[in-house]
Amino acid sequence: MTEYAVRPADLERDEDAIVAVWTRNLRSHDGPTHRAKFDWYYRQNPLGPGRCWVLEAGPNRDVVGTAGTGLRRLRVGGAPVMAGLASDFAVDQEHRVLRPAMMLARAVLGAL
Question: What is the rounded CA–CA span in Å between residue 26 and residue 14?
Fold first, then answer.
């Protein structure tokens, strides 16, 4: 049975692995677009940096999944409010079973 672990991402060290997971699984964009989105959402968001978690698998602790949160400004009843937006939930196909997905979701929920 594959061993899994979830940890907060190191945005500098894990950038390439995160973008690779997105490119493999979030096919609405290509690699360069995902990288630009990573920079904007997690580093340059004018409302504050986002937070990301990575799912690691196996003895090599390969990054096989991600989940994130970021700040967004929304209007509710005409009034501006700050909201946390869950985003970038992606898991490589061979690891799409309940346990790893729940581990990622719990990490995000636990941080809210």
Answer: 17
